[in-house]
Amino acid sequence: MGTYGRQNVVFVRGEGCWLVSENGDRYLDFGSGVAVNSLGHAHPALVAALKAQADKLWHTSNLYRVEGQETVAEKLTRLTFADCVFFCNSGAEACEGAIKVARRYHYVSGHPERQRIITFRGAFHGRTLTALSAAGNEKYLEGFGPEAQGFDHVEPGDLAAIEAAISPETAAIMLEPIQGEGGVRAFPPEVLRAIRDLCDENGLLLVLDEVQTGVGRTGKLFAYEWAGITPDVMAVAKGLGGGFPVGAVLSTAEAAKGMTPGTHGSTFGGNPLAMAVASTVLDIVSEPEFLEDVRTKALHLKQGLSGLMDQHADVVEEVRGEGLLMGLKLKEHVAPAEVVKAAANDKLLVVGAGDNTIRLLPPLIASDKEIAEAIQILSRALSRVAREVR
After folding, report:
1. CB 3.0–4.6 Å: which of 84, 250, 269, 294 could bond 88 by disulfide?
2. Is 29 a catalytic residue?
3. Any catalytic annotation for residue 314?
């Protein structure tokens, strides 16, 4: 179906931070499949894990215990706030599952009226109808009939509006620590702490969507760590599989007490192939030295982007983001698609976002040399676009 505005290029091979097209051109990939290829392309450890599992077992369904699920769940619970995990296949599924956990918690706690969830304008939680309704973006909802009910949308960072939106029917507050699709807009740590306090004061669950920010992307294993808080429920996907489809809902035991047999399920979620890859990703990314390296490289990327803002003040308005999830907010008269196109013509892949922003999402293994090369290419792209829009 014609649902994508694709670039006219076909990639046939990947090597680390590079993609090779069918005609042999090499592209520096600073989109990472939209924050998915956390360890780059064809990482030897991931390839080995997938091949080894493929020779043994692909699928049994969740009618039976799955050894890989137990292994990955043990790692996730040891590394995070969570006590239990539900495995699925994508970020949208993880967000849907997190919403169900939050509502079910209040139902079994004797408060079935607590079904509403406070969410934030500019958010993106996936393409299913409920996930789209949670975000409330009219552009994505248009033409798909009545939106799912039960969401109250407020502006990010407006604590007074958040507090005013809380009612006896409120079940949870749901947010992305950094709105990726929404323009790389971060919730400051003090705001996240204030939202955590509001949840505690009002008996609400805090639900985090870390589909894009999780698994090392911000320089911590999960972005909530920067604020010194913990959520009650969290949706994870993208980088967890390093390119293989996998998602997960993480939860405290208390928040998940309503998730009993028959309340939720997935045919393919947590299949042995996905678990083999996710287990290997976690082993690599969770190492303190690896995350420290991500933070060091992130500083170099941010410095380079700040330099671009100084050099191209006529087209760049602001540098945004954390870790290796960075954005350039462009001046109102500059279209992100034009910068994305100009960069691609010079063999650099970056990704558009809302709020007139482009995103840079390099693999977490990107070298300083590759970061410097990306900055140089992006500088040339911004210069070309600046000339064209004068």
Report:
1. 269
2. no
3. no
